[in-house]
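ok trying again, last paste got cut off:
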Amino acid sequence: MGRFVAATQQSRESAIQAALRPWPHLDSQCEPIKRQGILSSRACLLAALALMGVLSGCKASISEMPIGTKVQIQPPLGLPPVPFPANNPPTVETIALGRKLFYDKRLSKDNSIACASCHKPESDFSDTVPRSLGVAGKQGLRNAPTIENAAYLPVQFWDGRASSLEQQAAVPIADPLEMAQPHEITISKLGVDREYAAMFQQAFGSPKVTLGRAEKALASFERTVLTGNSAFDRYEYGGDQSALAPAQVRGLAVFMDPHRGNCAACHSVGPNAALFTDGKFHNTGEGVGEDGSIVDAGRYHETKVETDTGAFMTPTLRNVARTAPYMHDGRLKTLKDVVDFYAGGGNSNPYLDSEMRRISLSGKDRADLVEFLQSLTGTLPAHVGPPDVSSENR
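nice, full thing came through this time. structure:
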């Protein structure tokens, strides 16, 4: 039995020594202590390992949970309660930090563009060109959609490649066609800024800048970029029957009628709120080239499911009158162009959505539909524009 215990102890010593081989200096540092009889060799090595565990644990356990003042984001008329993940409740501090990050050009390789460069607040957080321009004038692959009401989408991007706003937030920063900056460079840039250090401290409990913290802050800010309280909302949900003009009332009827506009099949309207998107992917034929080939595979890029070929996320129609150009490639310039495209049933292809079909709309119907779309222009919160100019890097 004694031989077994001794062998077991020897095995433990061997295991400890093996664990310390990558750090030989720790064993040598134990020698003075052992000579004084303070600790045995084994106890000293265990203490060293314990210290290493504490230190590495400190490094690995930087909290990314917001600690600040929690707030309830109040949706405007026409929108449902704002969802958010349990590990990123909105706080005053993370929203302020995210707002600063959103407008900071240091997030790009050459300090030339910010998130707001493609999601312009003056253009309802969309872009005015078919495909946005990144660092050094590189052209992106798709049109920059508005981030207004993106808080409600189940996934992000035209092809749904991000499962949350948090996951979406940092993608454009590293994209070589957009901001083109490796994440470690972004963290390094922000890490030497004393103002950011203070803001990260207030938001997360320490001044440490991490990608996860930045993603959470950006997502929290973006969840505040809400638009509602439009003429349609006041008419439909506020009980103000005078909010819509007669042409807009007729246009609403066309929009909702499955045998006429059939628009609500994808741009959903509920009894108590309307997102004007079903959050799903549809092939409308818009991604088909003149020769009938699929120009952009869309959702298929992510799922590899053949029937997802050419399918894209249904965009919201909120503030659609102010977010031209339209479609994932920005090739349709006006709302009339969009209405005419759908009235024609889109472009035929093997994966065309079953809801896409030629519809019979008169010239008046089409004009009324455009007028109704104008009624979806709503308001924005007061504090979603650029922060104090003195703190921006322009």
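cool. The chain has three domains: 2-60, 92-227, 231-374. The radius of gyration is 28 Å.
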